[in-house]
Write a structure and sequence with these properties.
Elements (H helix, E strand, L loop, with lengths): L10 H12 L25 H24 L14 H15 L8 H15 L3 H16 L1 H13 L14 H17 L4 H8 L2 H12 L5
This protein binds protoporphyrin IX containing FE.
The site of protoporphyrin IX containing FE has 19 residues, from helix 1, helix 5, helix 6 and helix 9.
Amino acid sequence: MTAATGEVPSFVQTEMRGAAMALHTRDQAPREGKQPAQRPMSSWQPTRADYLQFLVDSRKVYRTLEEIVEETEMFASFRASGLERGAALDKDIAWFAATHGEKEPAVKSQGETYAAELRKMVADGELERFVCHFYNFYFAHTAGGRMIGKRMAGMLLDGHTLEFYQWDGDVDQVLLPGLRTKIDALVAGWSREQKDKCLAETANSFKGGGAMMQHISP
Ligand code: HEM
């Protein structure tokens, strides 16, 4: 509880976000990043094929997250958050084929491996770990992901904004706060040990998200 308001501070906003921000490099998040700078996005030189691969692998992971949430009763409150990205990516991947004849490539090992890891942790009952990946993958996309999208649109797509970066509804004011509240409500029933298990997974969620970026970064 905070003395001033009597409200329980949000676990997502304080602890999960804090753990994630500390793992950013200084060039990614200059105010909050704590890791040494790497090669900044301004130096990335991907091709359209690289970017399409990033989208295809990302879709594999979103589809897996979305299927798990549909199949798992404990995550029923995460359904229909409005942040789902699988259908938007279907349209974008079809757009590459329709407008430029660029065929959809097969999912590469980055996408397959991460999707398999997510499935395994849920099959093993490690639901706290899954919540960490779920949070980081969706929220990262609305922050750094949107920055990547703008850069790729300018470099590779003549400024075309993909569906991947458009949501039905106000993402910052409505959809993200809505999902934060749902995650906080689930975590409210957890022991400190369960919360720590979730937080300890943050580095692995950066590994998974970082694997997608291998397709477009040096
Ligand atoms: C937030 C940049 C990669 C997870 C942020 C913010 C920035 C940023 C600037 C702060 C947004 C704000 O509160 O004003 C980047 C860049 C990345 C990157 C440039 C790569 C080029 C990642 C990765 C993950 C991640 C790989 C994890 C999979 C998060 C999370 C937040 C965040 C969870 C908090 C979002 C929120 O509170 O709404 N990122 N990031 N980011 N990032 Fe990243």
